[in-house]
Amino acid sequence: MAKPSSTTRRSKPFWERGYFQHGYWLGKKRLGTVRLAPKGEWDGVYRWEAGNHAGETATLKDAKQAVEQAVLVGASQLALFE
Q1: Contact indicator for 10, 39 with CB cutoff of 8 Å
Q2: What would the pLDDT profile of 27-62 be if each residue is shown by its tens digit?
């Protein structure tokens, strides 16, 4: 009998660039997004969403960090009223 491997690989979430949107993915599940307005209408604000959290930031870096933080907090926090 072959001994089962004690280390299992866990996939890490990754960012994927899209047209007017960046997506934060874990496999085939989208965890969050950062959106921009259409080309002629962009107001310089990055809008992000992750689960029940959403917000606006001035830079793409800050928006991506906010999504990553919301996903991390959402995954580690217990549901209180379920």
Answers
A1: no
A2: 999 999 999 988 888 888 999 999 888 999 999 999
Q: Which uninterrupted H or E stretch holds 23?
A: strand 21-26
Residue 43 token pair: 């107001």
> Is residue 59 within 8 Å of residue 46, measured between CB atoms?
yes
Outline where the chain has alpha helix (H).
60-76
Residue burial 41-64, b: 16+ Cβ < 10 Å; e: rest = eeeeebbbbbeeeeeebeeeeebb
51 DSSP assignment: T
**Residues 60, 38, 35, 46, CA torsion sign:** positive
Closest by CA position to 29, among listed 18, 16, 20: 16
